[in-house]
Design a protein that fits this description.
The structure holds 2 protein chains of 2 kinds. By secondary structure, chain A is of the alpha+beta class. Among the domains of chain A are: about 1-55; about 85-140 and about 260-390, Orthogonal Bundle (MetI-like fold). In chain A, about 65% of the residues lie in helices and about 5% in strands. In chain A, the strands form 3 sheets. Chain A has a 4-stranded antiparallel β-sheet with strand order 1-2-3-8. A two-stranded antiparallel sheet of chain A has the order 4-5. In chain A, strand 6 (about 250) and strand 7 (about 255) form a beta hairpin. Chain A is globular and about 85 Å long. Helices cover about 65% and strands about 0% of the residues of chain B. Classes of the chains: A alpha+beta, B mainly alpha. At the A-B interface, helix 3, helix 5, helix 6, helix 12 and helix 13 of A face helix 2, helix 7, helix 8, helix 12 and helix 14 of B.
Chain lengths: ~400, ~375
């Protein structure tokens, strides 16, 4: 603007020059957009208020304190039909987190195996992995959920014909029942032992790294860590007199009693999400590994590193930089897709929220809760990943 | 130069070495590709074992034992379940798919009127195939007919109520027809809206940028099913009292909004890959903003992100199956609806129906991804200097 003014003094400007001034135009268009958006928003607000008043629905979040009156099949916390709507939605949220957590672990494992398998020099393995990816990523995830639910899991036997599995587990159409551990009085020392072991491992690792830096001597940190983290709690457990009994499931004629049950709805959703997302993760992994230049592994070989060491210290750290951003978005996709549990009746956030919405008619409030929860999951994950990414990013000197 | 007396130069020819292990013969191929190392051999044995364990059972269930013909459930059930098959039988019930095929394609569209969706399908194919073949001319006219002409014609043909056509309400629409309409409209709306949103996100005007970023991030941050619920229960609340909005239209709005936000991010990726010099070059030629975008930037940016655009299309096509949750009968919805039909109820019906629906979805998605790979190669050769 300053050099513009130097060429054409401001008193010489005509109306025409104002119309064609990009700055003035920008301001005009922004004001126009703002007026349109605010106008549309206000009319939506106005219509909504009128519609709600007409249907007699009270707005606000007071309904969350009301009695829910519906049962939820699977819950991580205490819940009965006398609990509040707020608690029902909380149960749904915890179930969403539960299925996302286990789904992410399984999908990552399968995805890594398939992705590396596709790069294998073994023709048969590479082709099998390709078939897996091409099949699963071209079918809707909802269909895979139904496939597990209707096709496989509902063909399980009735309660009275339950299949007995080892370790006291029982399989039937109510799900997989397994012995529930019942901890004794002295059990509180075990988590403390675990905590102590983790802290000790941390210090051992620090000491080992310093020593390696100073003297070049290596220390088997991994084995020490496993020994500490597994061994110490086990020792304490035995020393405390093994304060643990099991509540075994018993299959009656019509009903199961005792033990804990993994519902078929959970298993169908969990397996479908894992298998579906794994095909996308496999492609991400493959692209990441192929993005590492061949010269890197050749140079590592020239330095005398073994193939396994090359993979661990040279290829994987560089591939991770490429892999992490798309991998994060796959994790988010899995979490969002867990909302399809509603289709098979798994009580996650959208399902319990949907029931609440049907019973109370508080559509806007329930939708706002959904938006808030999913958006905060997305934003938290992307903030964490941005931080992680900036730590992993190539430091250019 | 005399080389005969140099001790380190070999005076006589080496005897020819035996031919290297043939890579052409079958055994050589197997040795290199399947048994290169002991680990490879072990993996091969494992894979073969897996195939031997899975394949014969699958082929047997899908084809050999399958019930290919029949008119009701008795053809797909065992004697105990009230059918004609021997006890312990299990196999695919293709007779069910054959019997309900028309329904899977058109839903509950009136029988006498099914020539109308057929005609739309023929028009669609006739316009789609030439636009997919890069060699054929007149792409602009073709695109105009496909994305503007066809939707108008299709609406009047399918919905009827004019020109003496019987009116067919949208709740009667269903099957693959609904899946294709939803995805087609989603694709046709999401590309232009996505481009506008991506431009808005890269705009220098703060108000427009904030609006676009908010829209994109909110929609991308939530699952499609919540967007569909929003469209389904909140859209009627937003409209003035007395206005109603068709259920089908609500789902269309939800799908289109969702796809647009994803498309915007794909297009933004392309815009960011265009060097600054292209923008500056266009500016220095005196092109206006829209001329610059239309003639210089977009052709390059879109070419770069064709794989991403097609992936979004594939995702959209798969995601349309979610409308079955809000009570519409797309391909997956209508297949599911038939599980409870007493004429065909049997233990093998659901899984057969799901395999059929899965195969149809797979055909479309796999076709799209193959076409995108072809297009990428085609455009790549054009760029070679």
């Amino acid at each position: 603007m300053t050099d513009h003014a130097a060429i054409a003094p401001s008193e010489a400007r005509t109306l025409r020059s104002y119309i064609y001034d990009p700055k003035i135009r920008a301001i005009f268009f922004q004001i126009l957009t703002l007026v349109i958006v605010v106008g549309v928003g206000w009319s939506i607000f106005d219509n909504t208020v009128a519609n709600l008043a007409r249907s007699g629905t009270a707005s606000g979040y007071q309904f969350l304190k009301g009695r829910a009156g519906f049962d939820i099949g699977a819950s991580l916390i205490d819940y009965s039909s006398d609990s509040t709507y707020g608690r029902a939605i909380l149960v749904g949220f915890l179930n969403t987190i539960l299925v996302a957590f286990f789904g992410i672990i399984t999908a990552t494992t399968i995805g890594f195996i398939i992705g590396i398998g596709r790069l294998s020099k073994n023709w048969l393995i590479a082709k099998l992995c390709t078939v897996y990816v091409e099949v699963f990523r071209n079918i809707p995830v909802l269909l895979i959920i139904f496939f597990w639910y209707k096709g496989v899991l509902s063909s399980l036997p009735q309660v009275r014909d339950s299949v007995k599995l080892p370790l006291g587990m029982v399989l039937n159409n109510r799900g997989l029942a397994f012995p529930r551990p019942v901890w004794g009085d002295a059990a509180w020392v075990i988590p403390i032992a675990l905590l102590v072991a983790i802290v000790a491992t941390f210090f051992v690792a620090r000491w080992a790294k310093r020593r390696q830096m100073r003297t070049g001597k290596q220390f088997h940190t991994i084995w020490t860590a496993i020994g500490l983290i597994v061994g110490l709690p086990v020792l304490v457990f035995l020393a405390a007199g093994a304060p643990l009994t099991f509540d075994f499931p018993i299959a009656g004629r019509f009903n199961l009693s005792g033990g804990s049950v993994i519902a078929p709805e959970f298993v169908a959703l969990y397996l479908a999400l894992s298998f579906y997302t794994a095909s996308f993760i496999a492609e991400t992994i493959r692209a990441g590994i192929r993005a590492v230049a061949k010269g890197q592994s050749e140079a590592a070989a020239a330095l005398g590193l073994q193939p396994s060491t090359t993979t661990r210290l040279v290829v994987v750290p560089q591939a991770m930089r490429v892999i992490i951003p798309p991998l994060t978005s796959q994790y988010l996709n899995l979490t969002k897709n867990s909302s399809l549990g509603i289709a098979v009746g798994f009580p996650e956030l959208v399902a319990t929220g949907g029931t609440t919405m049907n019973q109370t008619g508080q559509a806007i409030e329930v939708v706002s809760i959904w938006l808030a929860v999913y958006l905060s999951i997305s934003i938290t994950t992307s903030l964490f990943m941005n931080w992680f990414n900036s730590k992993m990013a190539l430091v250019e000197r | 130069m005399n080389t005969k007396n140099l001790a380190y130069v070999r005076p006589e020819m080496i005897a020819p070495a035996p031919a290297p292990l043939s890579t052409r013969s079958a055994s050589g191929w197997i040795r290199i590709n399947l048994l290169a190392t002991p680990k490879d051999a072990a993996l091969t044995i494992l894979a073969v074992a897996l195939l031997v364990w899975l394949l014969p059972g699958m082929i047997n269930w899908l084809f050999v034992q399958a019930a290919w013909f029949g008119t009701d459930r008795s053809f797909c059930t065992t004697a105990v379940q009230g059918g004609i098959k021997p006890n312990g039988w299990s196999g695919a019930c293709w007779a069910f798919v054959g019997d309900r095929f028309q329904q899977f394609m058109f839903g509950r569209y009136p029988l006498d009127e099914r020539w109308r969706p057929m005609l739309v399908a023929i028009l669609f194919i006739a316009l789609l195939v030439p636009i997919l073949m890069p060699k054929l001319p007149r792409k602009g006219l073709n695109a105009l007919l496909l994305f503007v002409g066809l939707p108008i014609v299709a609406f009047f043909l399918l919905h009827g109520g004019v020109f003496g056509l019987q009116k067919v309400e949208t709740p009667l629409w269903g099957g693959l027809m609904v899946t294709l309409i939803l995805s087609f409209v989603g694709i046709a709306v999401s590309l232009p809206v996505g481009i506008l949103l991506a431009l808005g996100r890269r705009s220098t005007m703060p108000v427009i940028r904030v609006i676009c970023v908010t829209f994109i991030e909110v929609i991308r941050g939530v699952p499609l099913i919540t967007v569909l619920f929003m469209a389904n229960v909140m859209l009627p609340l937003f409209l003035p009292t007395g206005w109603t909005i068709d259920n089908f239209l609500r789902a269309l709005v939800g799908v289109a909004i969702f796809a647009s936000a994803y498309m915007a991010e794909v297009v933004r990726g392309g815009l960011q890959a265009i060097p600054k010099g292209q923008f500056e070059g266009a500016d220095s030629l005196g092109l206006s903003y829209w001329q610059k975008i239309r003639l210089i930037i977009m052709p390059q940016a879109l070419k770069l992100v064709i794989p991403g655009i097609v992936n979004t299309f594939i995702g959209l096509f798969k995601d349309t199956s979610l409308v079955s949750i809000i009570g519409m009968f797309d391909l997956l919805g209508i297949v599911q609806l038939n599980f409870t039909d007493t004429t065909w109820i049997s233990p093998v019906t659901p899984i057969t129906g799901l395999i059929f629906a899965g195969f149809i979805f797979w055909l479309f998605c796999f076709g799209m991804s193959r076409y995108s790979a072809f297009m990428e190669r085609h455009l790549d050769t054009n760029l070679k200097r």
